[in-house]
Amino acid sequence: MVIIDSRLLEVIYMEVKILDFDTTAEIVFINPKIEDPRDSLSNLAQIKIGPKKQIVQVIRSELVKENEIGLPTSLAHTMKAEHGDNITINPRRRTNVLNTIMKKYDRQKWSSDDLRSIIDEMYTGNVTDLEMAAFTLAMQYEDLSTDETEHLTRSFTLHSEQIDFGEPVYDKHSIGGIPGNKVSLLIVPIIAAAGLLIPKTSSRAITSPSGTADTMEVLCNVGFNAEEIMEIAPKTRGMLVWGGQLNLAPVDSQIIKRVERPLSLDPKSVIIASILSKKLSTGVDHMVLDMPTGAETKMESRAEAKELSHLFVEIGRRVGIKIDCALTYADQPVGHAIGPALEAREALLTLDGKGPRSVLEKSNELAGILLEMAGVASRGKGAHVAEEYVKSGKALEKFYEIIEAQGGSRILPKDIPVGQYTSTITAKEDGYISHISNKQIKNIAATLGCPSDKSAGLYIHRKKGEFVKKGDVILELYSTREGALDDAMNIAKLKSPFLQEGMVLERISSSPIQLD
Amino acid sequence: MVIIDSRLLEVIYMEVKILDFDTTAEIVFINPKIEDPRDSLSNLAQIKIGPKKQIVQVIRSELVKENEIGLPTSLAHTMKAEHGDNITINPRRRTNVLNTIMKKYDRQKWSSDDLRSIIDEMYTGNVTDLEMAAFTLAMQYEDLSTDETEHLTRSFTLHSEQIDFGEPVYDKHSIGGIPGNKVSLLIVPIIAAAGLLIPKTSSRAITSPSGTADTMEVLCNVGFNAEEIMEIAPKTRGMLVWGGQLNLAPVDSQIIKRVERPLSLDPKSVIIASILSKKLSTGVDHMVLDMPTGAETKMESRAEAKELSHLFVEIGRRVGIKIDCALTYADQPVGHAIGPALEAREALLTLDGKGPRSVLEKSNELAGILLEMAGVASRGKGAHVAEEYVKSGKALEKFYEIIEAQGGSRILPKDIPVGQYTSTITAKEDGYISHISNKQIKNIAATLGCPSDKSAGLYIHRKKGEFVKKGDVILELYSTREGALDDAMNIAKLKSPFLQEGMVLERISSSPIQLD
């Protein structure tokens, strides 16, 4: 009888049975009769054939006999295992990582070494989901100290790809949370047109209708490796690529995937370390940070946004990134267009002088901050200098140059395809738009198919403060699937994404009805 | 192309493929090509055939085609599924449970309803390990308030089996952490001999060499269901059974198994709710709580033990259990015998007047508290009354009566088998035993095979404070496996479980060597 004894870290020798099926997860099968009194294998185990090692999940199954261990075909292939090979399986190597993580629950600080060792063990795949949750939840419960946040930032860069351009690198980053925020597609060409290097990596949407990478992908490729970026960016001075293809802060990506997303967590300390470690790894030394602040965004209050900004600036200072934070208006979506294709269109239109004032203004303001940081514009004149790049057409020309360098073509806004199924929502009466809900707009966009359906999205014809007459179109919805359009219309009917009111919002009577 | 859309809670219809193997975990297989952009199935999904529902883990495998869902044989059997049956799979039902759990991370209190709904969802199997970890870790980070602890205690009883004897029920419980603590085997017969009802449920060892249930199992059966206990206990007045067979506080058991054990957690609020909910469900209304306090135990300081005691007493008062806590000496193991068989032997010997003074004294003191609570002994006389039950042989006679009622026989201590492989550790020089390490004793016992090897264990011949001469036997080790004995001896050599010193423990010189 085989007994798994975690105390002795007993190594079990078994015989490989290659199973005639494949799984995407790394799992092995052992016989249910194998005793494991302490559940040592319930999380993860390590298998080994010769020098090949692999952390696997163990599943009990009658598929295999007691002396056998079943390997799905692809795992057998990776391990170079043959039927009948000797293989060892042992409970996951004991490490001190859980104790180190749990220090936080005893109100101790994590030292630089603590964080480095935790991140190291996570990188090695030696940390269970539960342990990773204990790590992340501690930070959700209480923010790390400034020192700890600095250490976490540095730790995240340890196993990260490093890109060094050998010259100052500029960057614009948004903490996100506001739909329609396509301004990176304007800022990058403005900055690049000014000759500064801005090889911007960005993410795909997680909860928003379109991430910068999703929007840019409408116009050209966004998947590039480090070598390609090192080759293209110095020539064009700007790029807009998807960071996911680079191996930036891989442990951070694991934490997001395995813990933060399933639990909807977003601890402040990890936000900072996550963003700044990636900037460090891509050589960024000057950054403007867009901090959308408003109802139904990540930063609901200015005080909160300011506090986070100060922390960003300080950690940036410590690790060598000069950061200027901009708290930006976010009580409604940015511009009119929501969704990858519609946003790409609006970005191009705005660079061509035909877009909404709000998109242009936000882009110029943020680009202006970078130009001032670089000394290209004097203090207070940055936005004006940025505007000149747009007005002169230099920014649009630069944008097309970048698009072409990234494998796209000089497409015109009108030629960008949008969803063929459309529907409109109109005003039921005369009145002012008093509110547009970021959250509801996001919901509707998601239902329409954003961001995976690039042609899906919505166009906000009338924004907050505008007066509309009965029958005026307020929203226009697009999708490539009729069913999705119907669902979205139903959701919009159920809970309107906007409020429309007369100038008198509420009447408070001087003689209220008496309740007895 | 099948796309899993968690937002719409889309239900996917698939075709059953019964696989020709079995797994102990509830898993199903779907084709890797099925898209799941939001990882909706990564935790748990629900499958449904007709009225049959089941929460399952989803594994991607080429075993099945895109229109198929693979069910291992036993799952197919439970679901009454046939090849080709229509089956629906959908992402785990959305509940508010995660939001409710996460309230704690925003420093909110959990209401009675909050806790009830969290525990309800856990009972339904609708809570992932990660969510359960978020719940438990919050309490590890910060103790619940007294109100919350009361609510948690009551919530744990919700899905629990309920036993009602219709008369006052007495109980003795230990929070554990000290090896050799076999006193329940003496206290139960003493109390039962006094005519009070004490149908004690206890646990098996998790980290200790022997739980009360493990020790009792050496002498008779410990697995009884509620009906059997209701039948036997009122006759014998006492029982010593394993609580695991009853369905007491099932959600608590899940939390222990799925989160607390893998993460080595033991949040105070859960300790209290876990113990008291089980007592509530078995009708206990008077309890003495043994709180071993000392180095290398759960309660290292008296202040800590006192604080926990006051909380126990208060929660007990609120839910209707009168509790007296006893902080007990725990700087070394209780008595001489460690391990199921050796402890059962020592318990019988002590009831027969031939055991160690410390075991007898601790038993009499704790039993005495119960006798006083019951009014059977006047205040301050309880231990004396208890001692009389032992001296007169009534307690031993009662113990044999209980053993027989639980299917055992009147075995004599010398006839209890202990491990055939033995070895001794002797004093290397003359001196006093200045320290015996609970932790090292536990380690050695575990290596010898405790608690699954009932005959394994160790006997401590000389305890703290005793003077030993060179060559005297201090420890005797027992096992049924020669290899385990060797391993244990090696561990003991590597790190001695005791310290032996002369009367001068250390010399502090008045003229220390000067360091420059």
Task: Give an overview of the whole structure.
- The structure is a homodimer of 516-residue chains.
- The first copy, chain A, has 3 domains: 12-91, Beta Barrel (Barwin-like endoglucanases); 170-405, Pyrimidine Nucleoside Phosphorylase, Chain A, domain 2 (3-Layer(aba) Sandwich), CATH 3.40.1030.10; 418-501, Pyrimidine nucleoside phosphorylase-like, C-terminal domain (Aldehyde Oxidoreductase, domain 3), CATH 3.90.1170.30.
- Chain A contains 17 helices and 18 strands.
- Chain A has helices spanning 73-78, 97-102, 112-123, 129-141, 146-157, 184-193, 212-217, 226-236, 250-263, 268-281, 302-319, 340-351, 357-373, 382-391, 394-405, 438-448, 482-494; strands at 12-18, 27-30, 45-49, 52-60, 68-71, 86-91, 170-174, 198-202, 238-242, 286-293, 322-329, 337-338, 421-426, 431-436, 457-460, 467-468, 473-479, 498-501.
- In chain A, helix 11 (302-319) links the parallel strand 10 and strand 11 (322-329).
- In chain A, helix 3 packs parallel to helix 5 and helix 5 crosses helix 10.
- Chain A is globular.
- Residues 5-9 of chain A have low confidence and may be disordered.
- At the A-B interface, helix 4 and helix 9 of A face helix 4 and helix 9 of B.
